């Protein structure tokens, strides 16, 4: 397989790792994101709900990181989700300046349905990998994430979230 590292005459973009990661994510997400929208959610809302199924009561800063949404934008999304009855916001009992976000019963029911759908979608995607379970690519991606996050000393590490630790270590 030719790539720009081995062959400088090869086309750059179709062989560039960051393009390949983004294109694979986009292609893999398209069908599921369409399903999310049929359930009345926007993709960022789905990401928040998925994160809260793992760590209900997360702070906005943690949700922003794992939902991959800029914090000020996420705050607006959470306010809208609160108004729709999907989440509720509460002050942290130990520090009233912090806000924690929780799924409502309605939000939890929808999130749990969508997580089950996401798991089924993932199984279909993973069938295309050698061995049919995708464990090798997941292990490789987890290792890449750990490596990249270790190189950013001012960023919170993976170990800042037990749920994230479990997801990364799941192999």
Question: What order do the helices and strands come in, and which of them pair?
Answer:
Blueprint: H1 17-38, H2 43-54, E1 58-59, H3 60-67, H4 71-83, E2 87-92, E3 95-103, H5 105-126, H6 135-150, H7 162-169
Antiparallel strand pairs: 1-3, 2-3
Account of the 3D structure:
This protein is mostly helical. Helix content is 59%, strand content 10%. The protein has a 3-stranded antiparallel beta sheet with strand order 1-3-2. The chain is globular and about 55 Å long. The C terminus is likely disordered.
Task: Name a few traits of the molecule.
single chain, 171 residues, mainly alpha, Arc Repressor Mutant, subunit A, 3-stranded antiparallel β-sheet, 7 helices, 3 strands, WH_DNA-bd_sf, DNA-binding, transcription
Briefly say what this structure is:
The protein is mainly α.
The CATH topology is given as Arc Repressor Mutant, subunit A
CATH architectural type: Orthogonal Bundle
What's the oligomerization state?
A: single chain
How would you characterize the largest beta sheet?
3 strands, antiparallel
**What structural class do you assign from the helix and strand content?**
mainly alpha
Q: Termini separation (Å)?
A: 27 Å
Low-confidence stretches: 156-171
Shape: globular
Strand content: 5-15%
Helical percentage: 55-70%
Text of the CATH class? Mainly Alpha
Strand order in the sheet with the most strands: 1-3-2
Number of helices: 7
Give the topology string: H per helix, E per strand. Answer: HHEHHEEHHH
Which value, in Å, is the CA radius of gyration? 18 Å
CATH superfamily: Winged helix-like DNA-binding domain superfamily/Winged helix DNA-binding domain
The count of β-strands is: 3
């Amino acid at each position: 397989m030719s790539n720009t590292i081995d062959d400088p005459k090869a086309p750059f973009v179709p062989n560039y790792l960051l393009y390949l990661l983004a294109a694979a994510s986009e292609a893999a997400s398209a069908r599921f994101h369409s399903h999310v929208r049929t359930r009345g959610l926007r993709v960022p809302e789905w990401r928040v709900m998925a994160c809260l199924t793992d760590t209900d009561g997360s702070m906005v800063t943690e949700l922003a990181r794992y939902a991959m949404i800029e914090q000020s934008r996420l705050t607006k999304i959470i306010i809208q989700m609160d108004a729709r009855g999907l989440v509720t916001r509460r002050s942290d009992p130990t520090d009233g300046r912090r806000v924690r976000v929780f799924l409502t019963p309605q939000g939890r029911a929808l999130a749990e349905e969508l997580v089950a759908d996401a798991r089924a979608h993932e199984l279909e995607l993973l069938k295309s990998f050698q061995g049919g379970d995708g464990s090798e690519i997941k292990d490789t991606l987890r290792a890449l994430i750990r490596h990249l996050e270790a190189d950013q000393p001012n960023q919170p590490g993976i170990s800042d979230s037990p749920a994230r630790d479990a997801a990364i270590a799941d192999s």
